[in-house]
Structures are given as structure tokens and as C-alpha cells.
Amino acid sequence: MPTLKEFNARHRRESLSLFDDESRSNCTVEEAKAYQKSRRRRRRRRALLVAIPLVAILAGGGLWGYLHRRAEAQELARQEEEQAKAQSQQENVEGLSEARMELRIQGVSEDSIPGQVSFVAQQALWQKPSEVRVVKVFSGMKKEPLPFSLSMNGETTLPVMTPEGKELELNLADPRVDADLLAAAVSQAWNRLYPDALHPMEIQIPKAEESPSQKAEKQRLERFQQIPQLDDPRMVNPSDH
CB 25: neighbour CB atoms within 10 A? Predict the structure, then answer.
């Protein structure tokens, strides 16, 4: 049987075995606090290692969403601005204000003007830049677009003398107005406004070159027209011989 002294000594060693030595057993509370603090720091580090990439992903997604929404808003604003421009009425003026002849053209846009009208107006302005003013009014693509119209000094009709010497009243507001008659009507109107001009206005519509088939057909018709008819004096009556 161990003595009381030996029993107490062994019991003391078993108690100290949890802390390795006596000095460590005396610091149990401090070390426990330090250990818990160290564990908290490790948990925070692990949490940060997980949270930082997650926050970066969320922040990146949020930034992408913001940029995407901003781009959409900018595109919508651009479209609205273009639509507003398309719907707004525009007026373009070329020539001098003191010109006696004013050609006024209206429509939806430049593309809506008939080609012969644009050509005649530009030729008149080019030939007489000091005496012709061209005003173009465009409505744009709004609910009530302006129909095509052409007027000269407020008049939508002009008298015109044809090459055959026949006088006609030409409707300028007709989008299918004949190009040659329109050119003649505008030229004659300017010449009446400036009768003493040294160089009269003379607008010529360029003629399209005939194709080979058209030339051949024209020659065939001319040969056919040269064939003497029965009542032609050139025809010889066989009964007279």
C-alpha cells in the first residue's frame, strides 16, 4: 500500500499531466483566452478568404448590371433624340433673301422630293445664285407629315409654252409633274422676272442615252415611214403606162 505522501505525489502528477508542468497550470486562464483569441483570428481569416471572392463576384455583378443599365439608358436616350429630330420640322434655305424668285418645296424629308423637282431647283439655284432662293420645309416622320408641294413665289401653278408653241398651265404640286415642262416653266418664269438679263435662264433635262435596241427600233420605224403610200405622188400608176 502506498503511503499518504506517495498517494498525494501521484495525484499531483496526474493533475499536472493536463498542463505539462506546474508553471503552465498556473497560466491556464491566460492561455485559454489566448487560444480562444487565436481561434477567433483563424475563423476571421477563413471567413475573409471566403467572403472576399464572394464580395468581389457580387460587386462585379453589380457593376456589370449598372453598366448594362446605363448603356441601355443611353441607347434609349439616343433613340428618343433621333425620333424627336425626325418628328421636328426643319427648314433649309439656300440663296439670297432679295432674290425675286423663291422656289418653296415641302415634304417629309429630302428623300421624299421627286427627282425632277430637286434637279430643276438646284439647276435654277446654280445658274442664278443671286436671283433664286430655294426653301425646303420638311415635317419629318410625325403623325401628320407634310404632303409634297412645290410653289414659285407662293403660286402652285405656272404657265408654260411648249416647244410646239402651245401654252399650258402646269401644276407644280403634282409629284408626277413632267420634268421637261417643269424646267421650261421655271426658266420662263425667271425670264419674265428678269427680262433685261444678259443671260436668260435655260434649264435642260439631260436625256438618257438610247440603248442599241431602242436605236434599232427607231431606225426601223424611220425606214417604215419612208415607204411610199398608195396616195403618194411618187407612186407610179401602172395603168398610166
Answer: 14
